[in-house]
Write a structure and sequence with these properties.
37% helix, 9 strands
């Protein structure tokens, strides 16, 4: 059989389960997963192998109505990923149905209609009864001519294999784009930073929603095979620094331990992780921060 390869863009509203689906497809944790919306800032790619096909997933930020510069860059990145893809997968939540956000996405999909097939994946199917699923499937397909519809549970794995097999046989013929053992094209420094940011988001919940970023400043492989990783957590205000550090430094210590455990599991060897917290007012308006996240501050205004 001929080899197939191409890009698949996962699009949808914030928190629809795109990162969870990506991780289930790839079989490894390459995109951070939290319960807070808009945690995926960059176009993180995961690579899955299915038979003779290599599927490169573009995990886009959730599509929403942008207000800040960061928001606008994220939305532009999402549509940029969809425009460049060989296949687009729209992910919606079964229990939420057709929201205003889903309708807005469908409008843009219709306006940007091209040659790339668009599949519908209805996620979290365990939350609604079968008749409601059938009704939602029909209503969505009446609104847009989807190439295929899949009923899935990204978290539990139901229907994920069927979707992956369909993607594999629908991609164009061509040589593979990445070495077989490479599951993500995200630079390791950024992936490490995203891992730490995930732990911060989980730990801090609503206290510090989007007012921080993490940068990996140092990456040193030691003679014994272990890696020393130095990271800085940037916050926008002095008051935020204390929140991140926690009483007696307990918060940042717990975050570091959790991030290190994930990184050791991913890298397969010991990790020495060192975290600093620094105040950097206005970091969200610095173009360099966006470039490091794979975004263009000029996108979308």
């Amino acid at each position: 059989m001929a080899q197939r390869a191409g890009f698949v863009a996962l699009i949808g509203e914030p928190n629809a389960g795109k990162s969870t689906l990506l991780n289930a497809m790839v079989g490894a944790k390459v995109s951070i997963v939290t319960h807070k919306v808009q945690t995926t800032r960059a176009r993180i790619r995961g690579v899955a192998i299915e038979g003779d096909s290599q599927i490169v997933f573009v995990d886009t930020p959730g599509l929403f109505r942008p207000r800040r510069k960061l928001d606008r860059a994220m939305v532009a990145a999402a549509w940029g990923g969809a425009a460049d893809a060989d296949i687009v997968v729209l992910l919606i939540e079964a229990h939420r149905g057709i929201t205003d956000g889903v309708r807005a996405i469908l409008e843009v999909l219709s306006d940007r209609a091209g040659t790339a097939p668009v599949a519908l994946a209805i996620n979290k199917i365990d939350r609604v009864p079968a008749p409601a699923l059938l009704s939602l499937t029909k209503e969505m397909n009446d609104l847009h001519p989807f190439a295929e519809t899949f009923l899935i549970s990204a978290e539990k794995g139901a229907g994920v294999d069927d979707l992956r097999r369909w993607l594999a046989r629908t991609l164009p013929e061509g040589p593979w784009l990445y070495p077989e053992d490479q599951i993500a094209d995200l630079p390791m420094r950024m992936l490490a930073a995203e891992t730490t940011r995930e732990k911060l988001t989980l730990r801090l919940h609503q206290e510090l929603p989007y007012q921080l970023t993490v940068e990996t400043e140092g990456w040193q492989t030691r003679k014994d095979g272990s890696v020393r990783i130095d990271q800085v957590v940037y916050v926008g205000r002095d008051g935020h620094k204390g929140i991140v550090l926690g009483k007696g430094g307990e918060t940042i210590k717990a975050v570091g331990q959790a991030a290190r455990a994930d990184l050791e599991a991913f890298l397969g060897h010991k990790v020495h992780l060192f975290l600093q917290v620094k105040v950097r007012p206005g970091w969200q308006d610095e173009a360099e921060r966006y470039r490091e996240m794979g975004l263009d501050i000029r996108d979308g205004g």
